[in-house]
Amino acid sequence: MTLWVFGYGSLIWNPGFEVAERQVATMHGYHRSFCMRSIHHRGTEEDPGLVLALDADPNASCTGMAFRVAEGHEDRTLAELRERELISSAYLEATAPVKLQTGGQVESLVYIIDPDHVQYCGGLPLDEQAQIIATAVGGRGPNSEYLFNTSDHLVDLGIADAELSWLANRVREIQSS
């Protein structure tokens, strides 16, 4: 069984599993957004951070990275991804078609925000997002590190994301003042 995983946030720079192939890919019907309060990895219950999620929008698309899991590592990868991504059940595990930059399409495992979950916070103004990200810290480190790593890797891959670029610049301003 071939397993593809679509990454749009930290999976881009830290997949955490054996990768046989990686390609820039686009998923339609969703956009990348800091629409999930993080109470474990990049914040706490007392001081939540924000992490990226795919938020449904029929007119949007999200460009990220499609990873083909190394043969023989599919079951282990699935178990590890579920432990990492489903820690608070704010994400829904799904499969969806993603279009590879090199052509073709694959069915990919993807984690999508549950808009009915208490951690969902879609629609926060960008400056409010920046204020939260600038100071929150969780079990995997500062929220700003997560933003900077994701933004920098998207730039390295040639993937434009105006909101993430704006947020990265604004968070740096906040932290330097």
Automatic annotation (TrEMBL):
GO terms for cellular component: cytoplasm. The keyword Transport does not apply. Keywords: Lyase, Transferase. Pfam families: ChaC (PF04752). Transmembrane segments: none annotated. One of its GO terms (biological process) is glutathione catabolic process. Its EC number is 4.3.2.7. GO terms for molecular function: glutathione specific gamma-glutamylcyclotransferase activity; transferase activity. It is an enzyme of class 4 (lyase). InterPro entries: ChaC, GGCT-like, GGCT-like_sf. This is glutathione-specific gamma-glutamylcyclotransferase. It comes from Actibacterium mucosum KCTC 23349.
